[in-house]
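Now for one record.
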Amino acid sequence: MSTNPRFRTALGFVIALAVTACSGLSVVSDYDPSGDFGSYQTYSWLPDAESEGSGIAQDPLVDGRIRAAIDNDLTAKGFQKVDDGGDFAVGYQISTREEVSYTTMYSGWGGYGYGYGYWGPSVGMSSSSTTQHTSTIGQLLIGVFDQGSKELVWRSTGEKTISDRQRSPEEAQENINNIISRVMESFPPGGSGS
């Protein structure tokens, strides 16, 4: 296995995203309202960007699972895959980022501080403890480009906190299928395919 940090991060993201399936998955979609989605019947994959940092899963097993899930979703919606020159081209990117949060816990009753109260003078004491939490946020972006104009006409992003738990290849594929289904739920806009 490669020791490339981007490879490990991308692989970890996809495995963890697959493991946690759709719970907590936040999906945001957008599209060009002037797009002629009703005329689309065929699709092809965007050419692979071989360069590091392209956003494509560097692990061929993970890449294959994601592509199979997208192919299955589009086929179920009535689109036919062609090797090249489809009515639209589809591609995906994955990324991760670290998110840091802090939790502070207080002890004591600090509100009862210096002063002269009902029972006389008093001094209140309290302390606090702050803990740092680091989470990995994974993001899967799927884009659809009109083949004629080469312009982005639809995109959808799924994002969630991910964990490192790993499952069997079959469970990973099933969970990726569920994630892709949620992320692609709004494609094509206004319909269920051709």
Summary: Confidence is low (pLDDT under 50) at residues 6-11, 13-21. The two ends are 41 Å apart (CA to CA).
